[in-house]
Here is the input.
Amino acid sequence: MKRAVVFLSLALAVAIASPAVVRAQIPTPAPTPTPNPMVYDDPAMHFQAPAGFYLAGVRKVDVSKLGEDPELVAGWVYPNPDHPRRLFIEQEYYEGDVHDFDGVLEEQMRSQYQEALFKDKQNTSLRNGMPAIFVTMSTGEGFDVQRLFILMWADGQRGVAIVLQTKLGDNIDAPTARMMLSDVSAVQYPVNMP
Here is the structure.
């Protein structure tokens, strides 16, 4: 009889303790992730900024609201006083191909920047094969000379450019800049989508 009482007491203790043990083994759900400040996504593109940059701002512009002038949609800064860098994405309404967009963008940059000089233009592709053009631009004079590394493409509805802007004395060359801008993919902009 004593054994039955001991076993019954033990079984009761296990039954009472079990919910606490079971509750302790259920993992706490992870908090809902916030948007990654290093990533820009929209219906036709994905870009991840390289490490060391900090988000300065992002906004989504409906493709129907884009005009024929570039709209800044995202920007990051590299907060190093010796080597300040800016990284930004511009979009504008454009239905042609990347080779025609190249001429349009160059003309816009020439009107926006003093003494813009383009060189080292290369046909390339984005990570997923989307045709693109990479070009280096210098602007300014004296101690204010800047270099801009531009990766551009056209997605059927927009012309898109990702621009890395540095000072002339910065140790970034074209291959390094291409690597920094390489985490990008794009597709044709979906028809009937804002």
Confidence is low (pLDDT under 50) at residues 4-24. Residues 39-186 form a domain with the Protein Transport Mog1p; Chain A fold (CATH 3.40.1000.10). Strands lie at 39-42, 45-48, 54-58, 71-78, 85-93, 117-125, 131-139, 146-154, 158-167, 184-186. The first strand starts at residue 39 and ends at 42.
